[in-house]
Design brief:
8-stranded antiparallel sheet, globular, two-stranded antiparallel ribbon, alpha+beta, single chain
Length: about 240
């Protein structure tokens, strides 16, 4: 996976727009919680879905491996269905900033990119038919300083979605990185679940990109822990320096 991720990193928006987004991986914490390193993927399908000329690079990480598979399958794990990372988005339309309207956060656009990631890039790749994701905000976005930058809009939400656990039927492309689901699982395929989510949103005019830092986890206790130990240690710098 590291070679595949490196290829996508080389062709990413970060390289094109001279911005480095460095997010710690699982090796940065003493416990075995997350996969060792954060990966990169450049998605070409989102712009077709929204009907706009949008470029999207995704940084992501998921639950660490246990018994030959990621704990994102494990209903008893703190990292069941859990991810963190970043969306780096550039809109090619002049005067258009993705995720914002006149500097006000556009929650519909923010939710759209996260929903697309979960539905099309995660669940669909596992064989889930017609995956469903719905974001329900927990109050209005807050504006705060974060990782050495001001004016981040932070959105806390509940996420209603299909979970990743399912009965193994055939090999799916996602198994290359997550491993296969447990063979002894006899429950429903992709049962509905409720997760907690947090997204930090900011437009960086110096790089002409919107950067969304996100965490998805079973509850806000894990959200806070991951934010404190990992996401808040993210560094965003210019590659020209």
């Amino acid at each position: 996976m590291r070679i595949y991720s490196s290829y996508h990193d080389y062709h990413s928006l970060m390289r094109k727009n001279n911005v480095i987004v460095e997010i710690p991986g699982g090796t940065s914490t003493p416990q075995k919680d997350w996969y060792p390193f954060v990966m990169t993927f450049n998605d070409k399908s989102f712009k077709s879905k929204v009907g706009e000329e949008i470029d999207l690079s995704i940084l992501y990480n998921f639950g660490a491996f246990k018994n030959g598979r990621s704990t994102l399958y494990d209903e008893n794990s703190h990292y069941y269905n859990s991810f963190y990372g970043a969306y780096i988005i550039e809109c090619r339309e002049k005067q258009k900033v993705y995720g914002f309207n006149n500097k006000e956060v556009n929650i519909e656009e923010i939710s759209a990119v996260a929903s697309h990631d979960i539905e099309a890039l995660v669940l669909d790749s596992m064989g889930c038919i017609n995956p469903h994701v719905c974001f329900q905000n927990r109050g209005k976005p807050k504006i705060l300083d974060y990782i050495s930058y001001n004016n981040w809009a932070v959105i806390d939400c509940n996420i209603y979605m299909n979970s990743s656990i399912h009965q193994y039927n055939r090999d799916c492309i996602s198994y290359i990185q997550y491993g296969k689901p447990p063979k002894d699982y006899k429950g429903d395929n992709f049962p509905e679940t409720i997760l907690a989510g947090r997204i930090y949103c900011r437009y960086f005019p110096e790089y002409n990109v919107s950067i969304l830092l996100y965490i998805i986890a079973p509850d806000f206790e894990i959200i806070e822990e991951t934010d404190r130990e990992i996401l808040s240690r993210t560094k965003i710098t210019s590659s020209d320096n």
